[in-house]
Amino acid sequence: MQPIESSYPTAPHCIVLTPPAMLSTGPMHVTCGNCRRTVLTSVTKENGACAYVATLFVCLICCPFFWLPLCMESCKDVHHSCPSCGARFGTYKKI
Description:
two-stranded antiparallel sheet; alpha+beta; three-stranded antiparallel beta sheet
């Protein structure tokens, strides 16, 4: 009997994404769909729409301090990823 060959490409990784409504501003315990481990997510903060809208607003009110929202942690989006394999779970966006 000959082995059956599939004409469909195989996916290298299966990543289960967490719905955005479940993400928060801090690290959280999740089970990674890629490496199947229960981990505490690693978070990185990055300027997003909230920071840029606040920058525009501050520039209109008091121009010399336009840069302040770009430095504030509370205005940044939070990216969640697996510390073991690096799979990305999603982003908690302020806006």
